[in-house]
Protein 1
Amino acid sequence: MQKLDKKTLWIRLAMVIAIIVLVNFIASFLYKRFDLTSEGRYSLSDSTKNLLEKTKHKAFIKIYLDGEDLPSGFLRLRNATEDVLKEMNSESNGKIQYEFTNPVKDATNEDERIKIQQELISKGLIPTQLRVKKEDGFKEQLIFPCVLVSVNGKSWPVQILENQVGYPPEYALNNSIISLEYKIANAIKKLTDEKVYTIGIMQGHGELRPEELNDLANILTENKYEVNFYDVKQKVLSNQGDSLGSWFPQNTDLLIIAGPQQPFADVEKYRLDQYVMKGGKILWALDAMDARMDYLRNESNMFMAHGIDLNLEDILFTYGVRINKNLVQDGQQSAPIPILDEATKEPLLFPWLFSPLLTPSLEHPIGKNLDPVYAQYASSIDLIQNDIKKTVLLSTSQYGRAIPEPARVHLSAVKDKPDFKYFKQPKLPCGVLLEGKFVSAYKNKLGLDFVKKITEVGQAPKERSIESKMIVLSDADILRNNVSAKGEIYPLGFEQYSRQTFANKDFVLNCVEYLIDPNNLLSTRNKEIKVRQLDAQRTKTEGIKWKSLNLILPLSLVIVFAFIFNYLRKRRWTSTIQPK
């Protein structure tokens, strides 16, 4: 009986081992993880999954972040990148291939190392300079936290490290990990999407000049958009029908209206309205007040800012917003301007309250994890009650205020510290996203003769739009790049006095992506990975207790389990083996 039981035991043991080997062999060809985190840290969004399922081409991704001497933070970023790519590879049925590499690993000398680094920079990969601690001191090290996505011979560089001003390193790293999925998926979309989206930038009403929108146009072109400037001032009702098609191509996916200074005629407003009714997207960047820094260059160093009549109030009111004729100030965060110190005759930088640094919304993917956005002479926006969904994208800090027209702007006020008892209007909206089915501003307002005329040519007015979106910004300077006296173009968001670059470029690009992309890939930026930091005070006072508990408890459980297992085993076999 004892021999039979032993034989059976060995057979069972062999079967268990065989099953384990077989399961591992099958699992080596499959990849599947179960995400048990509350924030879905290890899961791809539906929009990314849809993109990967529709992708017909194979993509090869090279990650230049590898090596044994990577600092812990970069090692965490590297591992997070690998997690995302594994998921992408699984969802795409192997169409996403990737490789980690240390670009300078095989460099035999310093000249060869520099040559490799310059070659990577020429591909659009931006390095990061680090001071790494060694046994004999500190060493300067150049690291490329970058990814190069290649599809059918075309490549797209991706910077996976977020350089955020004012954020602690841990939060900047955390935000970099959050953005990984969107950045890589967006690069794949740019390289595989066969549709070319067209963007029209309106001219003809005193809008920002092409040279002032040069950097914006270049950014959009680099991101595979077709950008065209259209002068519409001389356009009138055409015999082909009254539509936006008489201004520029009907297939325009997005219209940008940046800083008009002259009022729109009713027929022009009607064209804009019908463009929206047909599903067209508009990015409005409108100045409600006539205020510029140049106006301060007079003997009194002051001017009175008055409202601008653009004749757009009624159409925007119908859609759900009203741009107020005022100037917002922010007592907490503002960009500086130089003032000549009378004693030293040297320019000193003072905060200029009329140049607020607007805060992007952390609750929406357009503004998620972005630095402040630089504005000049912005106005507040009221949200009008209707059926349209409204999301505030940009606002002042909790210490904001609005000065109604006529607003006195005086340079001498720059040296006075803001008195916070006057800054009691928190979170003043300066940028709003509108989403839904818009009602025409001309519903039940058109004359019968006009309706008959355009209906005869197949352009019957629509009274309600299909599902659509638009964004309204209360300052055109958010889209404007500075131009020097010599004609030099400064980057979008670059503030020339403090030499800082703010998040205008990323914010505007996110706005365009959100308005145009039908797959809503930008929503992947809304993923939140919580930073669960230890309580520093409790770590000091209770550290030894918890370390001991983590060491002793697992060992104790193993010992208890061993005793119970041994007891049950002895009891079973003792009871089954009878003495002769």
Protein 2
Amino acid sequence: MALPIEDYAFLGNMETAALVGADGSVDWLCLPRFDSGACFAALLGGPGNGRWTMAPVGEHRMSARRYRPDSLVLETEFRCAEGTVRVVDCMPVGTHRTGMVRRVEGVEGRVRMRSEAVVRFDYGSVVPWVRRDGRRLHLVAGPDDCYLDSDVEFGFGPGADPAAEFTIAAGDRADFGLTWVPPRSPEPEPFDVGAVIAHTDLFWRGWASRCGYEGRYRDAVVRSLITLKALTHAPGGGMVAAATASLPEQLGGVRNWDYRYCWLRDATLTLLTLLESGYTEAAVAWREWLLRAVAGEPAQMRIMYGIEGERRLPELELEWLSGYEGSVPVRIGNEAARQWQLDVYGEVMDVFHQSRIHGIPPQEPAWRLQRSLMDFLESHWRDPDNGIWEMRGPRRQFTHSKIMAWTAVDRAVKGIEMFGLEGPVNDWRRLREEIFRDVCANGYDAERRTFTQYYGSSSLDAALLMTSSVGFLPATDERMRGTVAAVQRELCRDGLVQRYSMEEATRRVDGLPPGEGVFLPCTFWLADNLIMQGRAEEGRDRFEHLLSLRNDLGLLSEEYDPDTGRLIGNFPQALSHIALVDTAFELERGRRGPSRQRSGTGGRVTAPRDRRVDEST
């Protein structure tokens, strides 16, 4: 059985990612890309589905583990009766090769170590052909071609998988390097493991040093930003939502999805967070990725794409994998790619607008794309959609989706007002007002004093906590105060927020049986609202409680199970770390005291402290 999700560390090189357990086992690694077939898939099955172990022989315990400061180099120490060893793991950056290196260092005494490399390509289903050449192993099957180099000699265990036992004394070290190459490529030179570790550490520390946040939660913010950066596909500029596939939203349940793709929503929110943190260069690469990915008719824009902008992401079930703690089916691909979600137009328009605010020059192809999106929205904003949570039931008039349609139009108007771009600004102003009135008339329940999940419903939706963040209404508006109170009253479990009302009727909305953990990003959004309402200490308490749910390395998954006290869902989850950084910034703004509120267009009031509401209103 795989370890609890919180017992895993995350490694990445901006091309792919690995999960390393506290027991020293690499239980998840996809090569060469985030969305490639895993060669180590024990996370979703068992040891026979692929893993790479590195630990002392016999009885031992993990005594400490940590990332090096502001880095993505992992150090894990194991202690046993004979002494202590340290395993240093990282994924090389900037080498034009993808893979992973491991170094075993003797700290004290003499420790007998064992390593077993159970490589199984295509998500644990394909046993490779293995050829040994001295201390190099060549593992190949179909399109997958890997080399494992080491300072020790691997033999073949009872299961015919490579295994090695060796002794490490204090001051000694043994190095290992796994490299993926394209089929029929020349043999690569072995990694210089020491140089790779030093270069990787230097890269991440240099990148982290540019972080623009200097508040009291800097360590948590930097760890989240490093995680977000590592989830970026550097060659193309896309940003994946998580490093894993099919980790369950409920242990033993069926809500198991593949998150190794580029959701426009998650990518734009990641980019907004990086922009506020001082990383403007990410916006240029992402803008180029987006223009390639969405090329064509606005009606054909997808909610998500493959890492290089692929549109076909067929959803498959892998019957040979038993699932994380029996959570089946195990799915790869994601059928949600075929859904229609209105809110992504708002996120895309917003990120273009914020890029300009942060000094990234306007680009004619980008504005042409925005004009095309606006032309489409004018005719389709009233259409029902699948909503932010990718409901697999019938399409509905989701309130949050309409608010994000308003956001799209608002940012188009601001593009003309602030940057002199050309467009039918008066028509767009009228459209913005029309959407605003429609939402307030149909998405708000005056009797219960709350916005509702969709027009005419009584259900709640935590996505509505983003209403003030996009400037639709200030957090101090009575309608928002009522919505926040309703969320606290009806969607909270132990102070943590569920995504939406979970009841038997939910099946008619999302097409699935009810039941999942609390959604961590939504709880951060609740904290944001409390802070914007002037309840900063309540918001801080909520934020610090969320920080306490991170694992020992500062990582968060998508959800949390209050009953078992465990992280659940895909891991690490970009949206959770985005929300953490955003709330840390919101606390800094709140610490400086309430700001003067300003009247917005159409007589509405906007929230000036919000990073997404510009100062021109």
